[in-house]
Design a protein that fits this description.
single chain, alpha+beta, Recoverin, domain 1, TIM Barrel, eight-stranded antiparallel sheet, 37 strands
């Protein structure tokens, strides 16, 4: 039927939106199946299943009945063989029947009572399931059973008793069950694997026995005590407990669904899901107030990883031509990157993507010209116009991630810009009276400042305007980004931020590329504008003038070498300074740091910077109870722990202690477990400010698989308490 593949331990962040490929798991990732058909998303149907969709209804005039028939008989048989008491079997059956009713009701859009009637007919010869019908409640469902049932339905549109290994693998993946299927599988066999997988975590089963006081079933009162006193969910009410008992455990808490629920990163993640499931921060503030996840693009695999994981929104490219004359970043054609951004770049996150031309090496001007043309031709209206051309202030509402959803921003060095205001004027009937505005172009700095046609302008700054020649002389002295005040005839004052136009005489940078820049790269640390991005050496960050206060008004970029002996210090300096673009290489160290840093805020790739002054957090401590189920929940035998940014960490046996941290800190924990004489190392990365108390599951990824696409996460069982 299937066997566990200990090498198949690649992690992933968002199972419901994964783009996984099918076939047997290997250390280098999943392969296609024999037919070459890609594997589906975890809870979505395979391509072959979709093709069969139209045949499903014709095969059976009652698809909901066919669906239930495909699962009920095997379930009855499996539950009856469990080595548990009859009372416990009845509770397990009740949670399953409740889940079956709810999945059927919502999927096929029929009423609760109608589903019960169907079940009453179908289970006449199934005493265990039939005996539960009188106790069922509407909208009551067990989290594990409901996920499996829905995945079974989505990957078995004709509702056969057995499904292909490929479809069965998709069902197992829904609950991160790391067994590999090699043959067709029935629903009963899926349940067996689920219960076997859950039972591997003996520690979770022991926790259940402790808090249920040795009983087969945990009461709502016992569940409430566990949540309040151990999990430290202080604001939970009796109503919340009743709802959790019903909506998460299906009307009964037994050792299997307790171990499944509390031992999984899907349902009991130690990293606060209120911060990681959805975007919760204000996304309308100035762009300079956000940290932006960076990743380098050296291959097509890097593109696939970056696109599938929304935690990175700045794609750093190093443009060169390959031996065939094709414009590439590393070995990846630039066109491939652009096409992927256009088609899939905003699937998981709608916040803007930055194409960041590496400041380490500037390509020749002709290559810049070609790149600019390719970018414009491919992305078209997806490109955002640089604020320096419109004369925008940092407070401009358009200058924020929220205002630029589904837009692509270019970061590059830029040629000289000539000051530009954007209105035409005519002289009055004599000098000294000012000028009259004869025309104004929409979207120009003057229009944004409030100047309209037929305005009578009398002053610029503190100087009276003599005539249009004098006004032209005054404007020529201005700099791009400078604020200038003009007075109208009625003496009210307008503020205009001077914009710019590309100077075609500057041949140092491609004019075409300069014209599409949004973030202007510079090495100048003085007089920076909101769109400027200062490129600074990582070793000089600490001694530079860059800090969170100064970087509220412009950007900074730093490149990190993951193999440097002081990489931890370099990243920490950049974090403490509030540098927006921390461009780590593709080393495991930098990838792990980036994963933990941008797990927050719904993993959208943007994090709002906060003031770190006066911030104090209590010391954090937790015990690693056991390793992932993939290695039999074997105990942790060794490891290391590091803090990137402020704070320190210590590992003593299986006890991890973190102190002195703040919101910018990232902890990277390496844990080694042994199974059958073979060592397996898993890496967890997280912000300590997001850790929850109690028995939890810590997401981690197998060592050497940070770049594997798609990645699969594992859960390490913890007890988080005082340090």
């Amino acid at each position: 039927m299937g066997c566990f593949n200990s090498k198949a331990v690649a992690g992933k962040e968002k199972p419901a939106k994964d783009t996984k490929k099918s076939g047997k798991d290997t250390k280098t990732g999943a392969k296609k199946n024999a037919s070459g058909e890609p594997k589906p998303q975890n809870n979505e149907p395979t391509a072959s299943v979709i093709e069969q969709k139209k045949d499903a209804d014709t095969k059976s005039g009652n698809p909901q009945e066919s669906f239930l028939l495909s699962v009920l008989e095997g379930t009855e048989h499996f539950f009856s063989t469990l080595p548990d008491s009859d009372a416990m079997k009845q509770v397990i059956a009740l949670t399953f029947v409740n889940s079956s009713i709810e999945v059927t009701r919502t999927k096929f859009r029929i009423k609760f009572e109608a589903v019960k009637e169907i079940l009453a007919t179908l289970t006449k010869k199934m005493p265990l399931l039939n005996g539960c019908l009188s106790k069922t409640e509407e909208r009551s469902m067990d989290d594990g059973f409901s996920r499996i049932l829905l995945a079974w339905a989505n990957n078995n549109s004709t509702f056969e008793k057995k499904i292909s290994a490929q479809a069965g693998q998709a069902v197992l993946d829904v609950l991160y069950i790391r067994y590999t299927l090699n043959d067709q599988v029935s629903f009963e066999e899926i349940l067996k694997l689920h219960f076997r997988w859950v039972s591997v975590n003996q520690a979770a089963l022991e926790v259940f026995s402790k808090f249920s006081e040795g009983k087969d079933v945990m009461t709502p009162d016992q569940l409430g005590k566990f949540l309040r006193e151990t999990q430290r969910v202080d604001d939970i009410t009796d109503r919340h407990i009743t709802e959790k008992y019903k909506y998460r455990f299906g009307g009964g808490v037994h050792r299997y669904n307790f171990a499944s629920y509390t031992g999984s990163v899907l349902t009991n993640n130690v990293i606060d899901p209120s911060c990681t499931s959805d975007v919760w921060q204000d996304m309308t503030q100035s762009f300079t107030h956000y940290l932006i996840g960076c990743t380098r693009i050296n291959s097509e695999a890097d593109v696939n990883r970056a696109i599938s994981e929304s935690t990175c929104r700045a794609f750093v490219v190093d443009l060169k031509k390959n031996k065939n004359g094709q414009l590439c970043t590393g070995t990846c054609p630039l066109l491939t990157l652009l096409d992927n951004i256009k088609k899939n770049g905003f699937t998981h996150s709608t916040y803007p993507i930055v194409i960041f031309l590496s400041p380490a090496s500037a390509p020749p001007v002709d290559v810049q010209d070609e790149a600019a043309k390719l970018i414009v031709d491919t992305l078209g209206t997806m490109l955002a116009k640089g604020m320096m051309f419109e004369g925008a202030a940092i407070s401009d509402p358009k200058f924020s991630p929220g205002a630029l959803r589904k837009k692509v921003l270019i970061a590059s060095f830029q040629g000289e810009l000539k000051p530009f205001v954007g209105f035409l004027v005519a002289d009055m009937n004599k000098d000294g009276l000012g000028v009259r505005v004869t025309d104004i172009v929409e979207g120009t700095p003057a229009a944004k400042g409030g100047v309209i046609k037929d305005d009578w302008l009398t002053h610029i700054g503190d100087q009276p305007i003599k005539n249009k020649a004098h006004l032209r002389e005054c404007l020529a002295k201005l700099k791009v980004g400078q604020e200038v005040k003009v007075k109208r005839e009625n003496m009210d004052e307008l503020t205009i931020v001077v914009g710019g136009t590309v100077d075609p005489q500057d041949k140092s940078v491609s004019s075409a590329l300069s014209g599409i820049v949004f973030f202007r790269l510079t090495k100048n640390l003085q007089d920076n504008k909101p769109w400027d991005t200062v490129c600074v050496d990582a070793a000089k960050v600490k001694s530079s003038s860059l800090n969170r206060t100064s970087l509220a008004g412009y950007f900074a970029h730093v490149s990190i070498n993951g193999s440097a002996s002081n990489v931890q210090e370099l990243i920490g300096d950049a974090l403490n300074a509030g540098i927006q673009f921390i461009d780590g290489d593709l080393s495991e160290t930098c990838l792990a740091f980036n994963r933990g840093r941008f797990y927050n805020n719904g993993r959208c790739g943007y994090l709002l910077k906060t003031s770190l002054e006066g911030e104090k957090y209590p010391d954090l401590g937790f015990d690693v109870i056991c390793g992932p189920r993939a290695v039999g929940c074997s105990p942790m035998t060794g490891g290391t722990v590091k803090v990137f940014g402020t704070g320190s960490a210590r590992l003593s046996g299986t006890r991890v202690s973190v102190s002195g941290y703040n919101e910018s800190s990232v902890v990277v924990l390496e844990m080694t477990c042994e199974q059958n004489g073979e060592e397996h190392t898993f890496i967890a990365s997280f912000s300590p400010t997001l850790i929850r108390q109690g028995y939890r599951a810590l997401p981690c990824i197998a060592q050497d698989e940070e770049k594997v696409v798609p990645r699969r996460i594992h859960g390490v069982y913890l007890l988080v308490n005082s340090a």
